[in-house]
Amino acid sequence: MPELFNLFQEMDIKRETLQMDVEQKRKMADNATTEVAVLEEMLDRTAQLYRQMHDERCALLKQWEASVRALHRKDHDINRTLSVISSTIEILSSRGITVLLCR
Fold first, then answer.
1. What is the full DSSP assignment across 44-73?
2. Whole-structure pTM over 0.85, yes or no?
3. If you average pLDDT over residues 6-31, what whole number do you get?
């Protein structure tokens, strides 16, 4: 009988040890699950911010491109106006009319 009692005690101690090990592993799994959830949330927020910044960057590039096109149109208009002025001065000069330019 004492051998059975000793065996029972050994098995009970082993059961308690295994039970503590299971509880520890369960806590580790819970912590890992929580950490993964937090990281997923952070990743989602990062992705959202990236998309927002990308959209803002695209809008800014479009605005800059439109500004460059507007500046090219204005340059073209200025050059065309200068050409008209130059032609007008030549015509007037050929007719003997002196044109004074202010600079």
1. HHHHHHHHHHHHHHHHHHHHHHHHHHHHHH
2. no
3. 96
